[in-house]
Every structure is written in C-alpha cells, then in structure tokens.
Design a protein that fits this description.
The complex is a heterotrimer. Chain A is mainly alpha-helical. Chain A has 6 helices and no strands. In chain A, α2 packs across α3 (56-70). Chain B is an alpha/beta fold. Chain B is built from 5 helices and 7 strands; from the N terminus they run αβββαβαβαββα. In chain B, α2 links the parallel β3 (64-69) and β4. The chains are: A mainly alpha, B alpha/beta, C alpha+beta. Chains A and C meet through α1, α5 and α6 of A and α6, α8, α10, α11 and α13 of C.
Amino acid sequence: MRALMLVVGLLCCALAHAVDPIELPDPVLQERYRELSHELRCMQCQNQSIADSPVSLAGDLRRQVRELLVAGKSDDEVRDYMRERYGAFILFRPAFSWQTAWLWLAPGLLLVLGGIVAWRVLRAGAARVATDPEPVEADDERSRS
Amino acid sequence: MNRFLIPIAAFGLLVIVLAVGVDRAPEKSVIKSVLIGRPAPAYVLPDLMAPQPFDVRSMAGRWYALNVWGTWCVECRAEHQTLLDIQKQGEVPMIGLNWRDEDALATEWLQRLGNPYAHVPLDREGRTAIDYGVYGAPETFLIDARGTIVHKHVGALTLEVWERDFRSRLPPDARRGV
Amino acid sequence: MIPEIGLFTCILALLMAVAQAFFGIAGTALGRTGWYAAVPTAAVAQFTFVSIALGCLVYAFVQNDFSVQYVADNSNSALPLMYRVSAVWGAHEGSLLLWVWILSAWTLAVVVFSRALPQRFSARVLGVLGTVSLGFYLFTLATSNPFLRLSPAAPDGRDLNPLLQDPALAIHPPMLYAGYVGFAVAFAFACAAMLEGRLDQTWARWTRPWTTVAWAFLSVGIALGSWWAYYELGWGGYWFWDPVENASFMPWLVGTALIHSLAVTEKRGLFKSWTLLLAILAFSLSLLGTFLVRSGVLVSVHSFAADPTRGIFILAFLVIMIGGALTLYAWRAPLLKSNAGFELTSREAFLLVNNVLLIVAAATVFAGTMAPLISDALNLGTLSVGTQYFNPTFLLPILPLLALVSIGSHSAWRRGRLSEKRGMLLTTLAFAVLFAVALVLGAYSGARVLTPIGIALGIWIVIAALVDPVQRLRRRMSISGGVLGMAVAHAALGLFVLSITIVETYTRERDIAMAVGDTATVGEYEYRFLSIAPIEGPNYDGVRGEIAVFRDDKQIALLRPEKRQYWVQRSVMTEAGIDMQWNRDLFAALGEDLGAGRWSVRAQVRPMVSYVWIAAALMALGGLIAALDRRYRVPAAARESDKVAPAGVGPSTAGAVAAAE
C-alpha cells in the first residue's frame, strides 16, 4: 500500500533524485538556502521538497531562492514570494494565522486534555488503594515483572 | 454513561469530514491558482515569431489566452489540435509561452504541426513561469482586457473545457457567436 | 482458465466468510452450538479458497499472462522472476487480494492456536474476523477485481514501476499488512468480549500475544519502508511525514499503547475500558489508513486515479465496522469496573501516563495528516503540512515519554516502591548525562540543544532496560519471555533514540559538480570521482560511477552509484552507492549529467544510521520474545493447578509459583 502510493506520488517525476551542485559562497547564506529548500514543496512532485526533487521546476525554484537570498531578502520574504505565486500549499510549515491556529494549538491542547484525563484516573486509583482487598506482595520479583 | 459516547460522537464528526473529502476528491487533483483575480505578472521576453521582444503590456485592452507549453511536453502535443481549432474560431488571441525549451525545436514544432499563437514569448529560464505559478505544462490562463487573470486550466485543453470554462467567461463583445 | 479459477475461488472465499460471520455472530447470540461449532471449518475453507485465488494471480504473473488486465498493467516479460511475484501486490487490486489473504492467514492462526479458548468465545472472535473479511471480499470483487481480462491480450506488459523493483520494497507490503491486519485480531477479541458482556484478566492474557506479534510485524514493515527510502530514493532521507507514512505510523503508536494497556489489564484487571477502546482504535486507524490512500482524498496522492466509488465503499465499510464497534463500546463499557487501586508512582500510573502521551502523539500526527482535508471541508482554505510541523509537535509528548520510560519500567505494581530503585536510576542517569556531554564536546561541531538530551535519554533507556535481566543472569535466575522481551524492546528504543539523534546532528552532506578525477571533501573524508561507464541490466541500461573515499590519504571505500533507465517505462532510477560500516554510512548518488564529463554528485557521511533500522528490528524481536512467554502457551488446566498454593506462603514457594507461571 505504501509502496504503491510512493510510486504514484513520484510517478510524475523522473525517478532520479535531485542533486544541486550549486553552493553559495557564503556559508551562512548556504545554510539558509538549504533550510529554505527543504521547507518548500516541489509543486510538480508534491511529496518532495525542492531540495530533493529532480525536476527542472525544482531547479528553477531553488535558483529563485538563491537569487532572493543573495539580493538580501529575509527568510520570510522568500516564503512570501513563493506563497504569492503558488499559494500556501508550497510551504511545508503552515503559517500561523487564524485559519491554521487550530492546527498549531492542537498538540498543546491535546497534551493538556491528556493530562487532565490522566490526573483524574490517577487520583481515582490512588483513592482505591486504601480499600483495596489485595494483600501487599512481599516478593520483590513478582511485583516487578 | 456520557463519556462512553464520546468516541462514537468523534467518529461521527470524522465521517462527515471524510464524506465531504470523497465528494470533493475529483477536484483535488488540481491545485487552485492563487493568482485568480490578480493582475497578470508583467514580462518582456524574446519572441520566436518576431525580431523584437514581446512585451505583454501590448495586450492591454484585449482579452487573451496564455498557453504554457514545451516541445518536451507530451500533453501539449495532445492539446495542439484543440489550440489550432480555437485559433480558427478567431475570437481570442493566444499567446504561447514557450517554457524551458530550445528555440530550434520550438520553431520546427510549430512549422510541422501548425501555429495557433499570435506570439511565442520564450521563457528559456523559467522565471516568468514561476511568476505565473506554473507547475506543470500545459497550463492555460484566461486574462481579461484589464490584465487580470480570470481563470486557469491545468492539463491539456479540450474544446469542451474551452467552451465551459473559457468562452463562457468572455464578455459578449469578445465573442462572435460561433 | 487460471484467472477464472482465481475469480471463482475468490467468490467461494467470500461465501465462506459470510458463513463464518453469520454462524459465528448469530450462532453465539442465539445459543446454537451446532452453528458456531462450524465456524472454524468455514474459516479454514476460506483460507484454502483465497490461497488458491492468490496462487492463480501469482501464476498469471509468473507465466506472463498478459490477457489479464492487471498483469498487463504491472508486469513485463523482461521482469526478473522475483519481481514478477512481488508485482502481484504492486498496485491496488492485487494488494487488496494480499490484504484479504493475510487476514485469512491470521484467522487460520486464531483457529489453530485457540483450542484453549471457550468455543463460544472463539466463535465470536472468528465471526467478527469473518465480517471484516466479508467487507474486503465485497470491495475487491465489486470495485477492484484483479482477474479482469483484457481482450485482445496485450503483446507485453507495461512493466512494474522501477521503484518497486527492489527486494526491500518487495517484502515491505506483506510485512506492513501482516501488522495492520493483525490488529484485526485484537479488534475481534475486543468485539467478542463486548458481545459476551465480559472482560477479565484472562481475556487480556489471550489477547496480548496476538497484539504483540502484529505490532512486531508492523514495526518491521515501517522500518523496511524507511530503509528502502533511504537507499533507493537517492537523497539520503528516511522519514518524510508523508500521509502514507503517517497512515502506518498512527496504528503503530496506538498499538504500542494497546500492548502496554493489555499488560495492566492482564496483571491487575485495571484500565479495561481503555484497553477495549485502544483495541478498537488501533484497527480503526488501520482501516482509516486503507481509506486515505485508496480514495483520492488526500492531495499528496492525487496522481492516483481518484476513484470516488472506492472511497465511498471503504467509507461505508468504516462506518459499519467502527461505528458498530463503538456502539458496542458505548453499551458495554460502562459495566466494566475495577476495584483495584494503585499509587501515584506505581507501574500502573506510569503506564497510564505512557499511554496518554502515546495517544496524544498519535492524535497530533492525525491532526497534521488530516489537516488539509479538515481545512478544505470546513472551507478554511488550502493547508499544507510537512516535516516542519510534525517534528516539533511530535516531540512535545514524546520527549516526556522517553524521560519516563526508564523510571516507569522499574516501578513496582500497585505501590511503586521507587525509593528502592532511586540509587540505581540516579547512577545510570548520571552516567548517561556524562557520556552525552563528553560526546557532544568531543565530537565534531554542530550539536544543537536537543543533541545532548537525545543522547543522554537514549543511553539511559538502554542501560536502565538491561539492569534487570543482567541482575537476574548474575543471580542465575530464570528470565521469562515477558521480562526479556520487554528489556530487549526498551533497550532497542533507547538505541533508536540515540542513533536518530546522532544521525540528525552529525550528518555531513554536500552536493557537488564533479568531473572524473575531481575530489571533494565531506567532513573528514575525501571523495574522489574515479570513473563512469555504461552498464546494462536485465531490463534496464544506464551508467555506473566509481567513487573512492579516502580518509587520511588511505582508501577506505569504493562506492558505485548508478543511474538506470528502464526500457519499458522509460523512467530513470538512482541507485545510491553506500558503504555500510558499524559506525557510519558513506553515501554517494549521481544527479544529473552536466555535460562535458561532469556530473552532479550528492555525497553524505551519515554516522550511526544503520542503527536506526537495527533498533527497529530489535524492537520487533523484543515483541516476539515477549509473545513467546510460556504463560501464553501452557494450557488452562495445567495453569489452574499452579494457583492452588495458598496465600501467606513463604517467599521461596511464592517464587516457585512465580517461576512456574
């Protein structure tokens, strides 16, 4: 199933991978370039970032990122540039807006919810210890396996 | 008793979301363009059909179609006849943005198969295509007289699609009652 | 002829599944012994028929029968034999037949290994399994028939996609399905308990080994897929939080919670309704995963011919199976009460927190995977979610979990008694922290905040997991399968955490344009491009490069990356050249031919990466060891006599009783 889907997702691309031999001279810029390339979706091979996709569109987009960085744009400006042309879909990290708030807040909320549930069960369990008819086990091995 | 109903209630919500998803699934195969309703990006590119470069601002005041193509693109070959038919109708000029291609190949292709385009700007490096949010040829845009992108179709054009999605959007004076 | 036999036996299998389901569920509900005594026979018959059906499909592939549409779409006469077989499950229709065959195999296993179960109960279990099978047979026959004929027959096939022409990817689906589908057994046990209106510690003891083995298979299946992505896709990555990957990971997370919850239910009769819910949830997520990847509902698989018919069918099946199970749950679960208590630092408490954190993690992955769908359904616009979302949000519940593993696995049931273990835990923690700090300071640069934390946690978990078995060995005490399995699996978890932390921090990667004779420095290694030459394979041709890797001017490896073009589908594949050693992988892959003898090359040095998959395999092994614990295999009658020893007996006798269990 997963194999099938991976196949299918990559069907539109030549099945070579992307290798981008261009490195920016400035190591700081190079690092930002690498990070951003991994954050942007290849719109043609939509399961890969432009860093990894072999198609020419990915190469063009990477070139665009390089040029923007060399021209002094910030990371956010690069993301905006791409988003203006391709929509939010091109970003792997959903921007935080009122439309995506639920998604970004979900993990924290779930954790809090889980904590509350766990606390209630723990308290109920601890309360029952006093009235628990089971004898306390003396044997160390049995109680720890 | 209440909390034991939570799982099935949550499942019910999920089913609704999934049902909507299945219902809309066929549309999912295409990413909606964010440029609809926005001005078509400007560009000046060499023109295969003329010695002087083509400036898209020269199309101001007219409705036109922008078709992104390449000789390397199999689907473009499939839609080519449709493009010729559309050109024969003579209602709306078609600009053929040649994407990431070789001039000689493009010339040979148009000579051999027929040329439906009024102009063929050469986007050799793909920058203009990026400005238009192109991600897979062929793509066809419909742009109005004020230069606003009105519609975009991804994939090979058919006369049916042209009728339904493009011609239907043309103002009466641009159509010639074909 | 053979394909028609295949179709016919498939229909027969469907009929057997109907019988199995009907006589199992109705028979037990109505108390008709004659009916439900027949259920195992129906199950065996079903297995026989579906095996023949699958065999027919395999035969069609091996014999290159291109008059069958499915074979023509997925095979080719030049395809090597091994891949002609694996092509059977290379696309939707065939993989469904494999799914249903594996379910039938699990059902057969239940028949064979459940002689100790009360007949009525096992008939219920088989009845539920029959219902699941029935749904899938209907789905296959109605919408996804692999035996359809092509007329006139194709002269040759369109070939198996080259991505799938690989040994790891050939067995990855069977492993994965063995896991997914195996959770159906736990699901069936849960439904049977709900139908019976009774769930006790014995039920937990029956259910546990089935679940653990399924979980082990799923672990291997996921690890195989990840490993394959690493060496085959050519970019050195191994996990992408792709919806398809998440579809297999969510059941795994919930399955892990389920195994741990079953432990508590078996030992102390607690958390019964939680265990029930988790059993339903694990299989539900398997079914949901099946739905997501075959219905065209998620954009990432959009190039799949989005067939709404299939989507609607699976959705209806989901509603019936899961809706039914959850209705049973709402009806029966309120009756499950336990009187046992446990203190805040007891093992029960730790396992509860463990499960809550695992479920939060699974829910988070669920939210991210479903986000595009939910956002679209609520008209909130298009949403796109990737690694940059999943990595931080997944770690949020998982880091605390990892911190608690070492402590929790040493706490005692009911009372905790952690004070007795405090010394050991603090010592091992201190050691782990010191080691982590030393490693971070001593190794090459690039450590991030999470690096020492990950390394310390990983080492601590490994040591803490091994303390108990080592002590027992030294005292010449026996180690039960359960204890050993747990130790191995937890140690493997620690190894997993450790290796991922190191790989993610210390990988060195460069993409360079190289001509023959060029050298490039990657980390402390030198990659020298020696040559490039054309090659030809059974169904492809291409080029092979030779890249020698030097360290301190001594050659230590020769990498042979390839670029292949497969004849039929004309697709180009990368085969990376990888040198695997105990401590690192040296990786090289060819990119594009830049002309004038220059090639773009991706060179990577990945320390400790093999341990990611070794750890996963060890985790699965731990599960299998635990499932083989003697207490699951000793028949009920013999066990009863063990329980005769009265309470208040001295430690040595109690120890003997414990050992006998």
